[in-house]
Amino acid sequence: MAYLLGVDIGTSGTKTVLFGEDGTPVVSVLYEYPLYTPQNGYAEQDPADWWNACVNSIRDVVAKSGVPAEEIKGIGLSGQMHGLVMLDGDNNVIRNSIIWCDQRTSKEVVEITEKVGHDRLLSITANPAITGFTAAKIMWVKNNEPQNYEKCRHILLPKDYIRFMLTGEYATEVSDASGMQLLDIPKRDWSDEVLEKLGIDKSLLAKVYESPEITGTVTKAVAQATGLKEGTPVVGGAGDNAAAAVGTGVVENGKAFTTIGSSGVVFAHTSDISIDLKGRVHTFCCAVPGCWHVMGVTQSAGLSLKWFRDNFAWGEMETALSMGVDPYYLMDKEADSVPIGANKLLYMPYLNGERTPHLDSNVRGAFVGLSSMHKKKDLLRAVMEGVSYSLRDCVEVIREMGIDVSDMMACGGGGSSPLWRQMLADLYGCEVKTTANKEGPALGVALLAAVGAGIYSSVPEACGAVIKPDKVQKPIEENSRQYEKVYALYKKLYPAMKANYDELAALDI
Questions:
Q1: 49 included as an active-site residue
Q2: Cα(110)–Cα(115) distance, integer angstroms
């Protein structure tokens, strides 16, 4: 049997998994590293931490598996998107990486919009300028650290820095490059127009590949450090969400997934490019050559439930500890005892502003309809429902764009909740499934490596051979009717309260 290595360079750690060609995980190793916040709103990491975690995790996986190095036929890389890595002429890292969740670039967002033009930016990069994207980070360094910008000779994304260290090649791929806001999304290559208007030298950027293409091979030094075979191919890989799509089989029209992690994501595959000119969702190139994906984001999905747990569910946490179960398991049971609509209580899940469909940094969370009759379990149910309504908002925008969403997978921590999956099935009006394999992004990029190595002829073929559905929640017609009544009211809350949130944000107290 051939084996593939999936390396996922995340925000909290790097996870390396060795898979058989049939997708069976053999060994998995995780190495964690810190996040630095030198100022309020800043978020940085040291690329050396990623590289050390990568070397150590690959070495451990190869050693623990006992699989001969020559049987590992390819490596795929997944990673946190949008991070800025700058190298000097000697390939030394110039400064810590400014990562995806950094919020220092609000002035640069305005600058980018003014220089390129809002509508033109949307038509080329498929997205409005936002603080998270890499272009704004590049402009921030250019404006605030000119000495660092002057030294810069190469700009890479986090996983692409790992690629450089593995292979010596400066390369990226379309899905991750889409999040830089420098890529012409329809043409799947760098935009000369955007680069010229922003004054960014194209020579700083890496060559763009499709996700299953071989971008380089493991060097002799890396082979000696990790136990890999020199010359092992490294494919383009994918950004974390695009990799998760492959890992859940979302690689054909009609297929989509919902992730309920700290944030919530609705991700839909499409073979035809579609751009929302209102900027409510992101359109990126996906890991399937010649295809795209549309992605809506709920900022505080699982974070809303975690906030509720940490502040109000102390009893459940104590009981769960004594029972040896997860507190969320008990919280699920409590919420399931409350009827749809949470006894006429609604929750707006906007703890940290919102992206889809409102793109509003001022909006905040709220319970609406709270009365003396409500108990903790009602609030708990309302939180889960409110997040589900927000995810339904994402689906509505995607469907409005003419993209079929009829086959939905669920993943992330919230996706393990049968109650939450049933809510989504009832609100989406389609089956919501999980997969038997839970490795997500690491499996996705391992499958891309399998395609690059010639084990499978295409990404859909690889997914068809490996990805199998596990649990299935079918929509319940009566539930759907009840949810529609509440959702209709939920949709009215934001427009009715927007002005109040803007006033609250500006309040001088």
A1: no
A2: 9
**Residue-range domain boundaries for the chain:** 3-242, 249-438+485-504
**Topology alike, domains 3-242 and 249-438+485-504:** yes
pLDDT digits (tens, 9 = 90+) for 55-78: 999 999 999 999 999 999 999 999
Q: 8, 184, 240, 378: which is the annotated catalytic residue?
A: 240
Dist CA 296 CA 284 (whole Å) = 11
Q: Alpha-carbon dihedral of residues 413, 159, 115, 193, nearest 10 degrees?
A: -120
Tell me which architecture the domain covering 3-242 has in CATH: 2-Layer Sandwich (3.30)
For the stretch 368-411, pLDDT in tens is 999 999 999 999 999 999 999 999 999 999 999 999 999 999 98
Write the class of the CATH domain 249-438+485-504. alpha beta
State the average pLDDT for the chain: 96
pTM for this entry: 0.91
Residue 361: which pLDDT band, with cuts at 50, 70 and 90? confident
Rounded to whole angstroms, the Cα distance separating 57 from 114 reads: 44
Query: Can you tell me the distance from the alpha carbon of 466 to that of 52, in angstroms, rounded to the nearest whole number?
Result: 31
Cβ atoms of residues 245 and 286 within 8 Å: yes
CB 256 within 8 A of CB 316: no
Q: Which two tokens stand for residue 12?
A: 């909290």
Residue of 105, 109, 141, 144 lying closest to 125 (CA atoms): 109
